[in-house]
Amino acid sequence: MKLLRPLLLALLLSLPAAAQESVLNVYNWADYIDPQAIEDFQRETGIRVRYDAFDSLEALEGKLSAGRSGYDVIVPTNEPSFARLVRAGALRPLDRAKIPNWTNQDAALLAQVASSDPGNRHGAIYLWGTIGMGLRPDRIKALAPDAPLDSLDLILKPANARRIARCGIAIMDSGIDVMPSVLRWLGKDPNSNDAADQRAAEQALLAIRPHVRAIISSAAITDALAQGEYCAVIGYSGDVVQAQNRAREAGREAGLIYVQPKEGAQLWFDMLAIPADAPNPEAAQRFIDYMLRPEVMAGVTNQVHYPNAIPASRQHLRADVAADPNIYPPPEVIARSFTVSAPSAAAERARSRSWSRFKAGR
Are 159 and 28 contained in the same domain? Predict the structure, then answer.
């Protein structure tokens, strides 16, 4: 028996890694999945999931740009990150024959994403949402009774920002996501590559910088809002809704609301995609197919409070989630929203410099 043990060990070591243990490496946003979905996928397939989280598109792109990231599934936002990865040849085309649940997706939403990925060859829609404001109206009105709660004027007009600064203003740390909304508020094209427009957006942000308490990650905004640290933030819709629920569960004060500004909210899509050099692309396609099941995506939406692109999932949603207009906006709100496209390389560099100056306050 003692002689057999070295032979068995040698045999195991000679087997391909996939035969010993199949591992799927996922890189997704923080707090952005239903843990039960991962447990059930592992139990059903025998594939072990290693799950890492990022908190900004800049972090995701930095990891992918270095090459050989080691990830099998990533979740970039359609613009500009996903579109940029598609153009760079950094993503593996999906084999739809191995993703039969592909057809569960809403065709109209897929058409929206096709501008980022012609033919929808490289990604399936995971979740989507808008960028707007998380507000505590009672605190704001105590400092500025006439402040507008339906407009980005509340935060981006220096006179208003100065009045409410005492109760806390925060902006998520992502120029990729915030700058288009500032351009829209200025009455300019959110997709403008014009240097003068970029400077105008930068100046608008610098004008309110003295009144902004924090420029922090999406995940940090959720926790801070739930704890009542800020009265006005610019961030993702789902982060604010998650904060509402965390505050309620903790028995903290109510009153936190999400507002899609009247100027129009940016509409975005997060995509399930496979890096071109993924170590385990077959497991990645199984995972994407699994995630596109209606009951699985309903579980994710129930957990993280972002809408998904699977119409059949609606019957599996909790009633309060399905009826929440901040999760599933009504048609008139969607009609006011806008999508963005990837800026030119020069505009992207200018935006990055502008954002750095905004964060530094100079």
Answer: no
Instruction: Report the half-sphere exposure of 136 (CA within 13 A, side-chain side).
Output: 26
- Among 358, 270, 235, smallest CA distance to 60 is for 270
The one-letter amino acid code at 234 reads I
Residue 283 in 3-state DSSP?
A: helix
Element (H, E) at 351: helix 345-360
Q: Kindly compute the dihedral angle of the four CA atoms of residues 126, 338, 233, 28, in this order, to the nearest 10 degrees.
A: 20
pLDDT tens profile 301-350: 999 999 999 999 999 999 999 999 989 988 888 888 988 887 888 998 99
pTM of the model: 0.81
| Domain interval for residue 215 | 130-267+339-360
Phi/psi of residue 257, each to 5°? -130, 160
Indicate if 356 and 208 belong to the same structural domain: yes
User: Distance of CA 352 to CAs 42, 173, 198, Å?
Assistant: 39, 12, 10
Is there a domain that residue 123 lies in? yes
Q: What CATH number has the domain bearing residue 279?
A: 3.40.190.10
